[in-house]
Amino acid sequence: MIIMNEKIKAKEVELTGFDGEELGIVTRDEALALAKSSKADLVCTSLFSSPPPCKLVRRGMAKQEAAQEKKGQKPTAGPVKVKEFRLSVHIEEHDYDTKFSQMQKLLSAGKAVQPVIRIQARKGKLPGSCWIA
After folding, report:
1. Which of 28, 33, 108, 109 is surrounded by the most beta carbons within 10 Å?
2. Whole-number Å distance between alpha carbons of 17 and 54
3. pLDDT classification of 84: cutoffs 50, 70, 90
4. How far apart are the C-alpha atoms of 22 and 16, rounded to whole Å?
5. Closest Cα to residue 115, out of 87, 81, 90?
6. Distances 111 to 50, 55, 65, 97, 105 between C-alpha atoms, Å
7. DSSP readout, 6-30?
C-alpha cells in the first residue's frame, strides 16, 4: 500500500528530491507545497522511522511502480506435490533405467521426487515387509 500526499500524517518528514538529493527534514505542509508546485507526488517510503522518509515522485509514477512491483511478484503456490517412485530390491535393470529417467526429467523441471525402496522379506525369514523412504 502506498501512502502519499495528504494521507501522510506525520508533522515532519525527511524529504528526498527527484534525483535522490537530500532536502533535509521539513514540515509535512512544506513538503506538500513543494510537491504541488513541482507537479509531483509526495510518497512515504517507510513508516518505521521518525521522521518518516518521503520522496518526490513525478505525478502518477508511484502508482505505476507499485502496480509493476505487484505484478512482478509470483503468486504463492499451494503445498509442494511430491512424486513418489516405488522401487524394490529385485527390480529389473530396464525398469530401473525407466524410473531413473522419469525422475531425472521431473527433477530437471523443478519438481519434487521421493524414491521409496521396498524391502520384502522372503517366506519364513522375516515377518511382513517394510518401506524405506
Report:
1. 28
2. 9
3. very high
4. 5
5. 87
6. 46, 43, 33, 19, 9
7. GG---SEEEEE-TTS-EEEEEEHHH
